[in-house]
Amino acid sequence: METLCSALVFPSFRITTSAFSKCGIRASIAVEQQTSQTKVALLKIGTRGSPLALAQAYETRDKLMASHPELAEEGAIQIVIIKTTGDKILSQPLADIGGKGLFTKEIDEALINGDIDIAVHSMKDVPTYLPDKTILPCNLPREDVRDAFISLSAASLADLPSGSVVGTASLRRKSQILHRYPSLNVEENFRGNVQTRLRKLSEGIVQATLLALAGLKRLNMTENVSSILSIDDMLPAVAQGAIGIACRSNDDKMAEYLASLNHEETRLAVSCERAFLEKLEGSCRTPIAGYASRNEDGNCLFRGLVASPDGTRVLETSRIGSYAFEDMIKMGKDAGEELLSRAGPGFFSR
């Protein structure tokens, strides 16, 4: 937990986490409560243990406490930290580990087994199918979906000299970078939490990296951002910036709690994007991007993209329709079917 409370200082680069220190202290207390707490918690929140995951769990906790007085009492809500497969295996690129639910499986199992009452996930980590006996009735208001460019030597991707190395574990980012800037190199095995990736950058392992702006905002670490990429330059991951909260399908009380927190505009956008992803049956080896938003006319604008990992082939499409659940699901599926047809056989199995 020390990394949550400290300010990490690097040459010419200061990463401040002081604003997160209270969460770190509370998380430490929560861990202790798992063994020493005598009062039975009314609600146990399951989460990964990274600083960002904990920030999202505490955002959920604070919203629950504000909406339900019985949950505002001391000890009523407990945070339970769960280590996932994705947290345990850091030496390989995600694409090489394979499988679905690398950052959710163990948390979902704890939910099904009754060890926790609700599970807080980054929606981009949630497979397009949900485990049996679980539902995901709640999305919190979405954060900024754009990607942030961070470098000690350049203001943007365009400013990087030929041959510069950009670190990212995301094939979506890699393919879009190489498509626009083929003279750059990408280090794929650039894993770890936000703090770890920034440390690698400061050590000169790479010359730049891209991180989700949403995570940096939730960690109060936007001072590290060199520039922000537009949606046109870097289409975000499906459900990027969205938090999803799951519970057991037979737990009406938890479903009632979560319904009170749900942000419907976010839920509809995420549902549209996930319908697109499900139609493509994308794996960790397939660069896929998708973003649904409300345009100035109040309609849904959906943009989708698939690419080859080396960025030599990028296929894009878009849809505009009513900002309503059934219409948005249809738009996502239709866009996915179009790109499947245009990509041709073998594109998604390479």
Automatic annotation (TrEMBL):
Q: Which residues form the Porphobilinogen deaminase C-terminal domain?
A: 268-340
Q: Where's it mainly located?
A: plastid
Pathway entry: Porphyrin-containing compound metabolism; protoporphyrin-IX biosynthesis; coproporphyrinogen-III from 5-aminolevulinate: step 2/4; Porphyrin-containing compound metabolism; chlorophyll biosynthesis
Q: Which UniProt keywords apply?
A: Chlorophyll biosynthesis, Chloroplast, Plastid, Porphyrin biosynthesis, Transferase
**Per UniProt, what is one Pfam family of this protein?**
Porphobil_deam
Compartment annotation: Plastid, Chloroplast
| SUPFAM superfamilies membership | Periplasmic binding protein-like II, Porphobilinogen deaminase (hydroxymethylbilane synthase), C-terminal domain
Protein role = Tetrapolymerization of the monopyrrole PBG into the hydroxymethylbilane pre-uroporphyrinogen in several discrete steps.
What this protein is called in its record is Porphobilinogen deaminase, chloroplastic
User: What organism is the protein native to?
Assistant: Glycine max (Soybean)
In the UniProt record, the gene name given for this protein reads: LOC100810357
